Amino acid sequence: MFRKKEWIAFIVAVLVMGFAFGFNDGRDSFVFGEWIVNMLWSFLMVAVILLVYQWSQKTVAKMNGFKTEFSLWSIDTFNWGWWRGFMVKQQKDLPYTFSFFGREITIKSFPIGVILSLVVTLVTNGHLFFLGVTHYGLMIKRAKRLGRKFINVTGYDEAKIAVSGPLSCVVLMVVLGLLNTQGTFTQMIIMCTWIALFNMIPFFQFDGGKIWNGARVIYVFGLVLIVAISVLVHFLDFMPLLLISVALAIAAAVIFFIKRHVEVKQ
User: Exposure check for the chain: N or C terminus, fewer CB within 10 A?
Assistant: First the structure.
């Protein structure tokens, strides 16, 4: 599923996000052994969630004639400015090559997501999380796109692929909720909730930004569905949970579509 470069990014993401979730184990006193065990469980749970997340996006991309490349969220410039209401790069600062003991080292990008996640975790003592660590790039398989109306990626295509990640967390939440009779999977359900909601933030580098820019009706549907299931999974059985959540998501999407259609006519 992953190439070597992607596996390296995956391992780093698991370690960083697992550290964020496991740093504060919620105990009144620090016991190193128990803290380590909690941290290892966090790594394992994050690994499962991210595998499902990325598998979903890769599968939907493949079905639509594309290929995703998983990577860490990084930047290649520290110089940004406003242009017609948009934040754009002024110039690239990276890649930057320097010599270290006679050996040339090239820094291609700065892993800002990793740095922000570690800083937020340490500053807040693990009470808050920054989970915008990962990112994906989209490549076209032109042979698979033949016969379609548009060869290149459309906003709708991008939105479908991006939203499949957060929605995979929703499916995982529901499955874990059905199995969570003894409270065994409560922590993992909470992790799924955080990861799904954080990636729905409509920031241009996150999946939420791609969904919002690509198809806003899909964004509204996905966001309401995720929020509804995240809340109701702790209180309802499977069928009521699914029916109520889907009904709320459809209602929100329809209202948004009608409101936007009326505004366009005016």
Answer: C
